[in-house]
């Protein structure tokens, strides 16, 4: 390891620090809660040390170099490029072309490297998958590896001999594991938000990993089955009360942030296709990955950039592409349709274009490309399609190229509507033209796809306006949606607010519409229909409860706060915009706790009491204090709850009613 560090040019100071770390390394084995006695580490690197993966990669690189540069070890050729070895830490995969000749040499290299470094391989865990049956008798029997005929597993991916089985062995297996996980989780006492988070934390990363490594086209039927599995789990196998699009919306737009697996699938694949920009024929960039170079050469009769920016004219042209290119283009077509992208964009290259044939036989257009006139967009000057004289002056074109100009002009006119003016740039390309190694690319694409979700809430707004007899401005309604998850860090409180605003609770009036035999009258007052506004506010038996809460806030914060139905139901109103942010936060949490008590007594003939609200608020504030103490934000706690607790202490000192306690 230290010799490798020196040969790779690491300085003496760095190497001396590594020597210090590995002077007398000690280890122990942890089995459940039992830890073994410490023992000296004789070889390899320390487990858990953040430096270990990099040190191991450096230590194993001499073996990789020996394999790559040995003339008798040959790899598979794809698209004119050789693939020989892939390494990820201690997981190694080799692609051998002449196995009968290469394998014995490979085994000798590994044995020699092991004698020098102490590196060993567990051959019983190593697999060899022959891609043909043309092996001499006895060759496979003498192999130290386990022989697999159909598929093997590498880095959590199942790699089959037949690529058509990739979907079955990976994505259908993912569905099977998802069902198994949900079978274990459904008995847990989780709220809907908790169930959504369990899918986000466990299942979504597994699915995303598959999509990032396996460019396989997934049909709508697959996602329909996937959605049916997780939606049933989210609703706890009860009736779905609202469309999934409202659950899938961003939390900032009033949704629950339910992951849209199709959007992550699109985002992961589009991020990979961003590397295609590095694979232009005759202009490959040095940093283009090997797989991009392979796919560039496999794109016969077209180019990767042309496939990116123009839809194939004929469906049969799709079948002429290689397996990976075909699946990638089908995924790209899904995205085009979802975002309403034009079939041909101005980023389309002029040369190596499957729908513009002249450059395949006329080198003139390649001269244009060398002069900087490479794409349709370059034909526009100051937002308008340039005349030949303008192009001639800008790119130094001879008069003899006028006929080629007419050809490309006719092509652009046939592909782009109103071609005289440069089309407006789609927001998709603002993300797509970022460097493919940029951070949070998948998240940006997912947000972009999420913006296309159609989940209007106008009907809920209009229903509340009719119930409450008020007119809610669009700005107020947008703030109501945006603050659903700001009312509390408690997911159950957030879910209450979500259900109230989206009118998901079964009132007697709603049940009467479903079951006419059910009376629509309120079970408490028995004098009015039990609509959503009546159940939460207008019921006469609730007036004392709400009046006491608003009176408490008025006295505690020394602000006149008359009872307000908007504030009670939405946690804010058009009249609270001038209040301090601390008081707004206190009011939002206080209102959702009050609605929680109303829901707890939903079928009870007796309304909740003010004393019950005080007890619940004390419990909630205690949790808020502990939370903010952990984040060292005690000043924020005092700003929000200082006046509330001061008023509570004052009343406690005066009368000390039963149920009151200090925090």
TrEMBL record:
Residue ranges occupied by any Reverse transcriptase domain in the UniProt entry: 1-159
Coiled-coil portions: none
Any single Pfam family the record assigns to this protein: RVT_1
Protein name (database record): Reverse transcriptase domain-containing protein
Species annotation: Cyprinus carpio (Common carp)
Organism lineage: Eukaryota, Metazoa, Chordata, Craniata, Vertebrata
């Amino acid at each position: 390891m230290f010799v490798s560090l020196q040969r790779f040019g690491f300085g003496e100071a760095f190497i001396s620090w590594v020597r210090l770390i590995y002077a007398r390394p000690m280890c122990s084995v942890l089995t459940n809660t039992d830890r073994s006695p410490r023992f000296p580490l004789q070889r390899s690197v320390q487990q858990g040390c953040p430096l270990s993966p990099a040190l191991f990669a450096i230590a194993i690189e001499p073996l990789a170099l020996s394999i790559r540069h040995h003339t008798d070890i040959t790899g598979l050729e794809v698209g004119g490029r050789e693939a020989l070895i892939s390494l990820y830490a201690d997981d190694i995969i080799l692609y051998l072309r002449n196995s009968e000749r290469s394998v014995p040499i490979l085994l000798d290299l590994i044995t020699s490297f092991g004698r020098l470094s102490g590196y060993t391989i567990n051959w019983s865990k190593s697999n060899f998958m022959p891609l043909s049956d043309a092996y001499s008798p006895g060759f496979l029997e003498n192999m130290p590896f386990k022989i697999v005929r159909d598929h093997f597993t590498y880095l959590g991916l199942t790699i089959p001999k037949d690529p058509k089985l990739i979907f079955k062995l990976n994505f259908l297996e993912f569905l099977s594991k998802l069902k198994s996980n949900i079978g274990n989780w459904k008995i847990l006492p989780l709220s809907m938000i908790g169930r959504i988070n369990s899918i986000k934390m466990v299942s979504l990363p597994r699915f995303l990993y598959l999509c990032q490594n396996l460019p396989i086209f997934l049909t709508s039927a697959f996602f329909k089955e996937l959605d049916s599995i997780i939606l049933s789990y989210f609703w706890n196998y009860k009736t779905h009360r609202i469309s999934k699009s409202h659950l899938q919306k961003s939390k900032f737009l009033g949704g629950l942030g339910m992951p849209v697996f199709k959007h992550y699938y699109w985002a992961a694949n589009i991020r990979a296709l961003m590397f295609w920009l590095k694979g232009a024929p005759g202009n490959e960039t040095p940093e283009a990955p090997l797989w991009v170079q392979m796919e560039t050469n496999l794109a016969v009769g077209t180019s990767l950039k042309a496939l990116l920016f123009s839809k194939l004219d004929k469906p049969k042209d799709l079948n002429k592409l290689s397996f990976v290119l075909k699946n990638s283009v089908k995924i790209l077509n899904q995205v085009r349709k979802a975002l309403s992208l034009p079939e041909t964009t101005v980023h389309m290259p002029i040369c190596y274009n499957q729908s513009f044939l002249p450059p395949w036989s006329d080198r003139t257009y390649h001269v244009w490309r060398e002069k900087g006139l490479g794409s349709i967009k370059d034909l526009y000057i100051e937002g308008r399609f340039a005349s030949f004289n303008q192009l001639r002056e800008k790119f130094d074109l001879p008069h003899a190229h006028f006929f080629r100009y007419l050809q490309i002009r006719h092509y652009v006119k046939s592909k782009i509507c109103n071609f005289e003016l440069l089309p407006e740039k789609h927001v998709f390309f603002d993300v797509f033209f970022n460097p493919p190694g940029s951070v949070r690319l998948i998240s940006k694409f997912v947000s972009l796809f999420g913006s296309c979700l159609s989940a209007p809430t106008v009907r809920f707004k209009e229903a509340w306006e009719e119930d409450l007899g008020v007119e809610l401005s669009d700005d107020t309604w947008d703030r109501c949606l945006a603050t659903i998850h700001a009312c509390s860090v408690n997911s159950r409180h957030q879910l209450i607010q979500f259900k109230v605003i989206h009118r998901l609770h079964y009132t007697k009036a709603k049940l009467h519409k479903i079951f006419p035999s059910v009376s629509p009258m309120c079970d408490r007052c028995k004098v009015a229909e039990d609509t959503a506004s009546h159940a939460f506010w207008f019921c006469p038996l609730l007036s004392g409860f709400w009046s006491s809460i608003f009176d408490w806030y008025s006295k505690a914060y020394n602000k006149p706060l008359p009872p307000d139905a908007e504030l009670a139901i939405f946690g804010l109103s058009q009249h609270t915009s001038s209040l301090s942010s601390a008081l707004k936060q206190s009011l939002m949490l206080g209102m959702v706790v009050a609605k929680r008590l109303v829901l707890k007594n939903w079928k009870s003939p007796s309304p909740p009491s003010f004393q019950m609200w005080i007890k619940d608020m004390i419990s909630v504030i205690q949790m808020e204090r502990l939370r903010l103490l952990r984040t060292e934000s005690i000043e924020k706690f005092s700003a929000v709850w200082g006046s509330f607790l001061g008023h509570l202490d004052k009343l406690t000192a005066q009368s000390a009613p039963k149920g009151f306690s200090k925090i």
